[in-house]
Amino acid sequence: MLDHSSGMSDTTYPEAALSQPDSLRQTVADLRPAWFAAAPGQRHSCHNPNYWVAARLVEVVSGLPFAEYLAQQVFAPLRMTSTVTVDSWQDPVPGLIDGHNRFLGLTWPRAEPDRFAAGSAGIVTTAYDLANWLALHTCGTASAVLSKMGPHELHGPSAPDGHYAFGWDNPDPYGGPRQITHPGSFFTSTATMVLLPNSGYGIALMSNSRMPLEADVEAIMEDLIALNQGKPGTGRPTPARLHR
User: Fold this and answer.
1) Which of 215, 220, 195 minimizes the C-alpha distance to 205?
2) Once rounded to an integer, what is the mean pLDDT over residues 185-197?
3) Hey, which residues does 107 pair with through a beta bridge?
4) How many percent of the chain have pLDDT more than 90?
5) CA-based nearest residue to 205, from 197, 223, 215, 217
6) Cα distances (Å, whole numbers) of residue 49 to 13, 14, 46, 128, 192
7) Beta-strand relationship, 180-185 and 190-196
8) Domain range annotation of the chain
9) Pairing with 203, which of 107, 151, 190, 226 sits 20 to 30 Å away (CA)?
10) Polar residues bias: where (predicted)?
11) What is d(CA 154, CA 173) in angstroms, rounded to the nearest whole number?
């Protein structure tokens, strides 16, 4: 499930185009008529329902709602005190700033569509809390959340494509430093995390905007990685922002 080689795929179960579930229990029930696109373990195909099934397994085994389990077993030990889990992007979160879309230099606020997010994308956090999350993956020691070998198991490629691990990717560095990455975006927000094993650093960027045809977050991340390696940045300018 976590390396997306289960055999499930958007081609056989286009979850984004279907009516949205209201619980992890319902997500699994809704999957009953779905067909496999490939035999399990044969092909890597990113598919949000993989995360839904994994999250539902956590609920069944622990006997706790997924959000409660994360709060007790992950967020609390890591001192991620401002991090919460939501089932839908319509769930209210105190203090959460508006998301935006940006196109051709124009930026405007926009509400997120009513999409189910638990297990796959429903984490709302802060820069401080995300730094604690990155420390879990870079310190190289055992913690209350992971054993000493835990990060190795999470980051090592296990999918048939030879790059993808448990939610983390190992892209070709093309002559640069080795990177372990996890990018993500929704309709009005963007985030990306990069671990740099050779230096022991982790870098996270979060933006309350989504740029369909631009890649500001990626450009900034490239410069930060270059600075971490003691090199000048790319010097690539970012587009001017004109707010409506």
Assistant:
1) 220
2) 91
3) 102, 243
4) 57
5) 217
6) 9, 10, 9, 29, 21
7) antiparallel
8) 15-243
9) 107
10) 1-12
11) 19
Sign of CA dihedral 99, 102, 107, 109: negative
Q: What are the pLDDT digits (tens) for 197-217?
A: 999 999 999 988 887 666 778
- pLDDT, tens digit (0-9, with 9 covering 90-100), for 21-69: 999 999 999 999 999 999 999 999 999 999 999 999 999 999 999 999 9
Contact 120, 16 (CB under 8 A): no
Question: Which residue reads 């539902």 in tokens?
Answer: 56
Q: For the domain covering 15-243, report its CATH number.
A: 3.40.710.10
The whole-angstrom separation of Cα 21 and Cα 117 is 10
CB 184 within 8 A of CB 191: yes
What are phi and psi for residue 19, nearest 5 degrees? -60, 140
